[in-house]
Amino acid sequence: MTIGIPKEIFKNENRVAISPVVTAALAKKGFTVNVEAGAGVGAKFSNQDYEAAGARVGDKNKVYDSDIVLKVRAPAAAELPLLRQNGTLISFVYPAQNKELVDQLAAKKITLFGMDCVPRISRAQVFDALSSMSNISGYKGVIEAANHFGRFFTGQITAAGKVPPAKVLVIGGGVAGLSAIGTAKSMGAIVRGFDTRAEVKEQVQSLGAEFLEVDIEESGEGTGGYAKEMSPEFIKAEMDLFMKQCKEVDIVITTALIPGKPAPKLISREMIEAMRDGSVVVDLASEAGGNIATTKPGELYVYKGVTHVGYTDLPSRLPTQSSTLYGNNISKLLLSFGDGKENYYLDMEDEVVRGSMVLHNGELMWPPPPPKEI
Ligand code: NAD
């Protein structure tokens, strides 16, 4: 059975679907891995690395004509004619936002799996590319903040004077937020976290950060471990808290999201104007509209002395790491479909198979029935 690894063609996309290490693991299981020449260059994997791992490195036609194509981004229009009729494709898909693409792939009778559709149940954590990418975004968000901040994160007493530690506020303590908290803490900053879900308190504190709270009793728990939209009273109370924090902290990193809704606006223009010159804000929710009123999605700019990082492609800015983790997620998902070797079949009773499947031989399978397992 052949697996194709194309070079991602989306602008500035540096990731590749699998690393050479994963290539070797798939080759050992009996798959023939066809890698497009230069596919790994952005992630610092050379053609020779893939060849040494057992891949056949060649031109794109052969790669897209493989039995199973593994990609990071959903295919662009230019890639559609290259995909094999009745083939299998696994990539990020976001079917709700990409209906036209799903129709085009259906017309080619493709079997399509969305890495973003993998059910978030315990058993499927190993395939959870959304969490892998969120973890990277949280880490890289802090690195970007440090890069644009004019001081140390850690406090120091030196012969040249005493340096106070930076103060970092992280709003939203899901996967990305906890990663940002852990990273900022490990760099020596004073870190504070806030979330609407009660269970996050212990997680924030276990990372050595302070958990901030408001004086309103309201559960933030939605379905499936995600957040629900909060009442206007709660949002007002948390924004009052953030106003006070903005006068004090050097860096604000926001990660608050609610599935299927625009990101809640939590940091107003006035709060940004209240921050000291030289402060940095990183809006990890910017692709969903942003938590910060002054964010420009995808852009880096300075507003009234405050550097705004609105990048929407942070995983691609840490491409070796993200390709390595994504490659582990996607290859383990693929191997779970069969007997763990090259023998590949689809058990439609399997919740992970059924949940992540968007098309089966061109037939629309999304959205799947609600999950049974926790
Ligand atoms: P997310 O990216 O959807 O949201 C980020 C965070 O924003 C959440 O913690 C949410 O509570 C918070 N938030 C929303 N509105 C807010 C507001 N007004 N103010 C402050 N914070 C707000 O979340 P995620 O990181 O994808 O996952 C959230 C949770 O889902 C995880 O912490 C975990 O419990 C669960 N999860 C489970 C699995 C699994 O079992 N496989 C995998 C991933 C996540």
Task: Write the topology of this structure.
Blueprint (H helix, E strand, L loop, with lengths): L1 E4 L14 H9 L3 E5 L10 H6 L3 E3 L1 H5 L3 E3 L17 E4 L7 H9 L3 E4 L14 H20 L7 E3 L2 E3 L3 E5 L3 H12 L3 E5 L5 H7 L3 E2 L20 H15 L4 E4 L14 H6 L5 E4 L16 E4 L2 E4 L9 H18 L14 H6 E4 L2 E2 L10
Parallel strand pairs: 1-2, 1-4, 2-3, 4-5, 5-6, 9-10, 9-12, 10-11, 12-13, 13-15
Antiparallel strand pairs: 6-16, 7-8, 14-15, 16-17
Helix pairs in contact: 5-6, 5-10
The structure holds nicotinamide-adenine-dinucleotide.
The site of nicotinamide-adenine-dinucleotide has 31 residues, from helix 5 and helix 6.
What does this structure look like?
It comes from Priapulus caudatus (Priapulid worm). It is found in: Cell inner membrane. Residues 146-310 form the Alanine dehydrogenase/pyridine nucleotide transhydrogenase NAD(H)-binding domain. This protein is α/β, with parallel strands linked by helices and 374 residues long. Helix content is 30%, strand content 17%. The strands form 3 sheets. The chain has an 8-stranded mixed β-sheet with strand order 3-2-1-4-5-6-16-17, sandwiched between helices. Strands 11-10-9-12-13-15-14 form a 7-stranded mixed β-sheet, covered by helices on one side. The mean pLDDT is 96. Helix 5 packs across helix 6. The chain is globular, with a radius of gyration of 22 Å. Bound molecules: nicotinamide-adenine-dinucleotide. Residues 120, 122, 125, 128, 131, 134, 171-177, 194-197, 200, 220, 225-227, 230, 238, 255-259, 264, 266 line the site of nicotinamide-adenine-dinucleotide.
